[in-house]
Amino acid sequence: MLIVLDSPQSCARVGAHLTGEGALVEPFTDARPPLLAVVAGAPPAEQVRGLAGVVDVRPAAPYLSTRHAGGPRTVDVGGLVVGGDAIVVAAGPCSVDDPTRLGRIARGVRDAGASVLRAGVTKVRTNPYGWNGPGPGGLPTLRQAAQQHGLRSVSEVLGVDDVDAFAESVDLLQVGARSMQNIPLLRRLGRTRRPVLLKRGFGCTVDELLGAADHILSGGNTDVILCERGIRAFEPGVRFSFDLSAFALLKERTRLPVWVDPSHAAGDARLVGALTRGAIAAGADGLIVEVHDEPAHARSDREQALTLDAFTALMAEVRRIAAAVDRPLAEAR
Amino acid sequence: MLIVLDSPQSCARVGAHLTGEGALVEPFTDARPPLLAVVAGAPPAEQVRGLAGVVDVRPAAPYLSTRHAGGPRTVDVGGLVVGGDAIVVAAGPCSVDDPTRLGRIARGVRDAGASVLRAGVTKVRTNPYGWNGPGPGGLPTLRQAAQQHGLRSVSEVLGVDDVDAFAESVDLLQVGARSMQNIPLLRRLGRTRRPVLLKRGFGCTVDELLGAADHILSGGNTDVILCERGIRAFEPGVRFSFDLSAFALLKERTRLPVWVDPSHAAGDARLVGALTRGAIAAGADGLIVEVHDEPAHARSDREQALTLDAFTALMAEVRRIAAAVDRPLAEAR
Amino acid sequence: MLIVLDSPQSCARVGAHLTGEGALVEPFTDARPPLLAVVAGAPPAEQVRGLAGVVDVRPAAPYLSTRHAGGPRTVDVGGLVVGGDAIVVAAGPCSVDDPTRLGRIARGVRDAGASVLRAGVTKVRTNPYGWNGPGPGGLPTLRQAAQQHGLRSVSEVLGVDDVDAFAESVDLLQVGARSMQNIPLLRRLGRTRRPVLLKRGFGCTVDELLGAADHILSGGNTDVILCERGIRAFEPGVRFSFDLSAFALLKERTRLPVWVDPSHAAGDARLVGALTRGAIAAGADGLIVEVHDEPAHARSDREQALTLDAFTALMAEVRRIAAAVDRPLAEAR
Amino acid sequence: MLIVLDSPQSCARVGAHLTGEGALVEPFTDARPPLLAVVAGAPPAEQVRGLAGVVDVRPAAPYLSTRHAGGPRTVDVGGLVVGGDAIVVAAGPCSVDDPTRLGRIARGVRDAGASVLRAGVTKVRTNPYGWNGPGPGGLPTLRQAAQQHGLRSVSEVLGVDDVDAFAESVDLLQVGARSMQNIPLLRRLGRTRRPVLLKRGFGCTVDELLGAADHILSGGNTDVILCERGIRAFEPGVRFSFDLSAFALLKERTRLPVWVDPSHAAGDARLVGALTRGAIAAGADGLIVEVHDEPAHARSDREQALTLDAFTALMAEVRRIAAAVDRPLAEAR
Question: Which residue of A has its CA nearest to C237?
């Protein structure tokens, strides 16, 4: 049982009361609104509803990512509004490379209409023998390339101990699909003040994604953007299956912004265009796309990176589809 | 090994020659172009290439649904061009009901922009205890409702023995997802002259769908429209997962027209709009949507049927998305 | 709603009564016990329970494959008891080949402990370019090889028009995974008197398998053996995933015998041993395994066929595992 | 490219040489044998093979978990040999509870034949509102209960910062399915000297599990036990699908010990028996099973916990199946 309260004080008071009655409770005082989870020994819902300070009683979780009061939640990413009318596009290479190349890509994606620069510094590898990226030491290169071209920046953070370094350098902290249920990381991000881009794990359900978002939101960080990036299914011709019906379901269940990563869903640059157009038409609030000036020279994921020319052509299509669903494209600074 | 030949005569001649050399062959003389499959004991490809009448030698199947020469294949459905520029929309109830209601739905979907009326007469039921539809005896009701409102008709045929009755009554013969690998039915449809709408089995790969299409095409029926309708994956919140990446892959691999069935992919009327917009933007050549004037009174699949009002609103969106990818909507007669 | 009745007469009477009250009913008079499905307009269950001749009222289907009264259902396959204590093993080549080879394999599997000879005559092919088998004309070869070595026979029937020919020649009619929801075929098999081996479709749930069984059982044929053969999931290293938990669930839900096909679940002869041992230990009532005297010369599925030596070694393991769960092996005649 | 070397010195020397030639390398000096991954710019394999100190050159990863030289790898868990002839059984409640109850369960599972006590102290929750367990502060309770009854202990470690505390208290460190690709955690475990029980992520392939194992092994910790616990597939009747074919594949690909967790694979106590028997027969080297003295009072996962009586009965079956595959059960101290 999940109890929604009107103040942290009520949260403490009701928690003490229920504990006295033998219940096992877990308070989320920093959450907005404050929540009290009754893990075991809950009294009947009607009885709880009658207690002073109780706003609502929910039989099931999650709550913070699914409540629908007050319209869509917008998230501020370095001054850029995510989740409003405008569609936000993040683009860039799989991983931070040398500054000259990164600057060239940043200028290219900005000119084509992106407003956020993406690039990884610590890569999650299926086995230890691939390139792991430059590590957090590569963050200044990313920040500089982004700032020089009026872009915000996003990069994936892997370890709890790296959160501060990332929060100082980038505008948006990405949680990768493989970390979606890394609870210590989610909790740590709940205590930072940077917005978080939370990707769905490829074996996780829509409700599990929302539950992971609640892990962050209940810690007090209200700025979470969700991201679909493909699931594991049986089609051998694609790296992941992009489940558009689950995406539609997610849009029904949450008012948090939802982005789409067509590059990882496809694993193949030739399919990225169709997925991107489809996602925008279906209601995506933003995109995160892999772009490289010379994909053949990328140190990782070269099959799925678009060239700058292909990305520019795609953005022209995106603008048209976005207009057909009455949405403009967000502009870089 | 699959050998492409310049004429039925070459097919017979090369077949006899290879048999004489100990190979096991299967000729497809009616296919266009004629094909000869070497099932076992094939000589080296170069040697076969040298034989008179041999146009091409392919190591792997399928062939007819995947060859890319000559641009997209259009299919004529009662005078309506499918697979050209215009997007074709089929709509109607899950199953044929009384003539008055069916006429009312037909008029409604026609007015909203559909050009084909869909309605089932023999339903595939997961167990024997549901409503099975009126049977082939319901076909005249469907034909009449369609003709009266200038619409073409499509209905699912289940049994080989029903093919003739369906071919006489409807413009487009549908093979349902559960029949995609019903080989006797596919072979029988290869010998009819009506176009076929072949839905992907919910547990089948893109290549298996193309292989099933080749079963029809190799029999001499060149008019096959493919249809995506969702696959089995793990998300409990939707009836099926609509794999947009597999759809994009399919568009890469075939030039046959590809439709989408958003109703069965979603299993929930609230999700149909997002799937429809996404599919059109991603390149679908047509749609087949469940619409009912009073979904609560539908005898089957009532959760996923759109009301006429919802369908009319959806069609306005479809027109805008279609225009954004430079495609008009096909018009009813 | 599904109504269980005490006699065909009650079935007719209650059906007429409910129709008179405006319900849409479908009677299954030949089922044992007779059933009446109320497809639409059902009155409250308590009211129906009060009618003369009504034994039970069930809210949901399937019924015949799931009822638990009276202990396990045994099926008679040419005098061999399936679903009793003894485990039955069917073995043989993917497809009927020349009589000499088939005889050699028949003797080999019989000597190793099999009591049923399996061999296909009409193969379901993913595309039309593979070997389709000799057709029903190959049935006498199968029957002769089986009889000569004291074995029963099983073979897959694909088309409704072939059912009579198969029923005359083989002891057990197999419905392949791709035909599990071929409703006309299931209905036709409901009217034959031969037992049926019904394989689970690789994209179908346990309840869909039971529903398919009810399609046969409700037609009056009470002899159905179910068979697990692997499902579609995401592991690229195997052809299909053999879901042992669904198998365990199936054993909970039905008292019909359940066999396992480890050859198709694995798609790789090296994995067949582990799957076989696991399935027997988990409660399988029988096995159907691909065995060939020279797998490299098999015309189809050669990767998954065991050699006679490997099969003989496997049967020694099967005997030990079977004994550990207190079950003997069925003996050939 | 992965280069296997004869000594750490060769690893350093060959690494320096290839770097000088423009390659990007990553050395794994602590791995046994030492490895050098060439991430980019690798010279031809033959050329590398000719360098002094090079033992082998592999085109693809993983390596350490898949090499087959030298027979099965056994792992020492507090003096207990895992991966040898004897099958090891870990059992206990989902989470550490009060000491009296835990002691009662410990005695019960020991008497029934378990040799390891399992209990979680930090639970991974799908959302933040469930019981999270007592935290690392609960470890002494676990250790004491285990030692008192001659059992070893296993518990899941979630965060990198907790590794030392767990390594001091328990004999075996468990990595849960949701953490299988938590790279910082895997790396940290590669530098501890406690054995690790690594569960397969429910959306991850067999090769990804082996790659995760290499993340630990390449850090210098050679004691890894793998564990299958079910995958995400489409069957709604079970919490997870237990893919016995992938398990068989895993046993083919690695000589590391492989355990099975039937409780999480089933999510239902009634199915645990069949899965356990099947896994032992198929070759599992050990089991980890949830057992509770009063499942209805368990604070988490109560549906899947066996009672002590049910566990005792199951262990009698396990002994018989194990004997049928010539394996004894490991004994507690």
Answer: A236
